[in-house]
Design brief:
The chain is of the alpha/beta class. It is built from 13 helices and 17 strands. The strands form four sheets. It has a six-stranded parallel β-sheet, with helices on both faces. Helix 1 crosses helix 2 and helix 6 runs parallel beside helix 12. The longest helix has 15 residues. The radius of gyration is 22 Å and the shape is globular. The N and C termini lie close together (about 10 Å). Bound molecules: adenosine monophosphate. The site of adenosine monophosphate has 17 residues, from strand 14. Adenosine monophosphate (AMP) binds next to strand 14.
């Protein structure tokens, strides 16, 4: 892969750097800085080598409009503290403020453009609209570096199109992520267990048939589980459900059976009437979810079954929390999985912003896991064996 050193001498040059600073923010405060910390080695290397560093990132989903709550201002502040250096935040993405901020940047200086998703061209499906915006980005750089692994699977102006316009390389974070994830795709030690949870049900259901080809066991929790349970004829009440995928999900269960793979589903769940942190809650087996309640975590019996499977595994990939871990009442399932993983001697990877934030929030240290990936969707697509457009275009 193309590395930073392949860019040649960068002293005095402007390097456009795509990071993924899409961090969770609550009341203007960053609640998990993992993705910002992960970008520091590349930023520091570029500064130490005398480059002017112009960073691009998105935050949230402002959908092509300027939305104040998605400003990168809290990110600029924290990044400055972590670097111990001034981070100049432009007031716009490619406007007058961005132009003057970049023009005034000293060697070794750091500028951050505003949220690239404030620009409608960034995520446009129209190639020409994306390229028009990428051409404006390209005016701010002599070279481009992709270090936002979390967006490497996105065909977006600041990830994909820009790399067609400037000499490009991957940063340290992208290289490290790819190296680790390759251990999962190229001959993983078996049993290889993939744990899937979270709320992006449609996205994650789509990856299951590919994962069934490589993994030995799939463990299903979080909002994902209810579509499976429903496909088995169970009443899931008001739980998250992808009603259009019931047949597909049933076919996965068949497919797994036919190929000697296991798909494990919850046997008990923690339910509540409201999506609220206050309860009341009940723990019921999956055949007894009342129609006006919803499942918000796996139950303790399920957690024990899943933990035993993890204990026996040699390789584990985990994407997506087992329940609504942000609320204490529904965080136990996720905690038990993190604990099982931390105690196992498997090679294990926790993937995805939410899963990574969950393990940190629940009090686990990064070094209790083999690797915490900054990319959720990107790591899943990599594991499926798909080429990530952002990386492909850098490689040329
Ligand atoms: P994802 O980005 O797909 O990994 O989803 C993460 C989110 O899934 C977290 O914010 C959790 O609160 C949420 N989540 C997990 N389990 C459930 C569930 N049973 N019902 C609703 N949301 C859930």
């Amino acid at each position: 892969m193309k590395k930073l050193s392949d860019l040649g001498a960068i002293a005095g040059k402007r390097v456009l750097l795509r990071c993924d600073f899409n961090v969770p923010i609550d009341n203007g405060e960053i609640t998990d800085a993992g993705r910002i910390k992960a970008a520091i080695p590349t930023i520091s290397w570029l500064r130490d080598n005398g480059a002017k560093v112009v960073i691009m990132s998105h935050l949230g989903r402002p959908q092509g409009e300027v939305v104040a709550k998605y400003s990168l201002a809290p990110v600029a502040k924290l990044l400055g503290e972590l670097l111990g250096a001034k981070v100049r935040l432009a007031a716009d993405v490619v406007g007058e403020s961005a132009k003057s901020t970049v023009a005034e940047l000293p060697d070794g200086g750091v500028a951050l453009l505003e949220n690239v998703r404030f620009e409608p061209g960034e995520e446009s499906k129209d190639d020409a609209a994306r390229m028009e915006l990428a051409t404006k980005y390209a005016e701010f750089g002599d070279a481009f570096v992709l270090d936002g692994f979390g967006v490497a699977h996105r065909k977006q102006a600041s990830v994909y199109d820009i790399a067609k316009l400037l000499p490009s390389a991957s940063g340290f974070l992208v290289l490290k992520e790819v190296e680790v994830l390759k251990r999962l795709t190229e001959n993983p030690e078996r049993p290889y267990v993939v744990v899937l949870g979270g709320a992006k049900v449609a996205d994650k259901l789509a990856v299951i048939d590919n994962l069934l080809k490589t993994a030995d066991t799939l463990i299903i929790g979080g909002g994902m589980a209810y579509t499976f349970l429903k496909s088995q004829g169970k009443d899931v009440g008001n739980s998250l459900l992808d009603a259009e995928k019931l047949d597909v999900v049933a076919s996965y269960l068949e497919q797994a059976k036919a190929s000697g793979k296991k798909i494990l589903l919850p046997v008990d769940v923690v339910i509540s009437k409201e999506f609220s942190p206050d309860g009341p809650i009940k723990v019921v087996d999956v055949d007894s979810i009342p129609s006006d309640w919803m499942g918000l975590d796996i139950g303790s019996e399920t957690a024990a079954l899943y933990a035993a499977e993890i204990a026996a595994a040699k390789t584990v990939f985990w994407n997506g929390p087992m329940g609504v871990f942000e609320m204490e009442l529904f965080s136990k399932g996720t905690y038990e999985m993190a604990k099982a993983l931390a105690e196992s001697d498997s090679f294990n990877v926790v993937g995805g912003g939410d899963s990574a934030a969950a393990v940190r929030m629940l009090g686990f240290a990064e070094n209790q896991f083999s690797h915490i990936s900054t990319g959720g969707g990107a790591s899943l697509e990599f594991l499926e064996g798909k080429a990530l457009p952002g990386i492909e275009v850098v490689e040329g």
